[in-house]
Design brief:
Blueprint (H helix, E strand, L loop, with lengths): L1 H7 L5 E6 L4 H13 L3 E6 L16 H17 L10 H5 L5 H7 L3
């Protein structure tokens, strides 16, 4: 990801990270590692697909999601990232991830 940031610039690279497949602490650790490269992490709740090997696996709890999104917000701000400066991609689209809302209103 660091190489991609070097090529495309600050706030122009992102990476999805699924919540609910590991403990929240590990997801937060992944968020930090992604953000430290200069890429914007996008935590998204895992949703089991019918017929898949994980169809019976439960998604994140609301409590875990709140913790992860709170840490996400603090981490990207602490790394000097600003998702509103993205020119393209998932960060710009905002359809699958409420990035503008989280950035504007925070988590309360």
């Amino acid at each position: 990801m660091k190489n991609a940031v070097d090529v495309f610039g600050d706030n122009q690279v992102s990476s999805w990270i699924l919540m609910g497949l590991e403990p929240p602490e590990k997801t937060i650790e992944g968020i930090r590692k992604i953000a430290e490269t200069g890429a914007i992490p996008l935590p998204k709740p895992f949703r089991p697909l019918f017929g898949s090997d994980y169809e019976t696996r439960k998604p994140s709890t609301v409590k875990d999601a709140e913790l992860i999104y709170t840490e996400w917000f603090e981490t990207i701000k602490g790394c000097g990232l600003n998702p509103l400066k993205a020119k393209a991609g998932c960060v710009r689209c905002n359809a699958c991830f409420p990035i503008r809302e989280l950035w504007k209103f925070g988590i309360d």
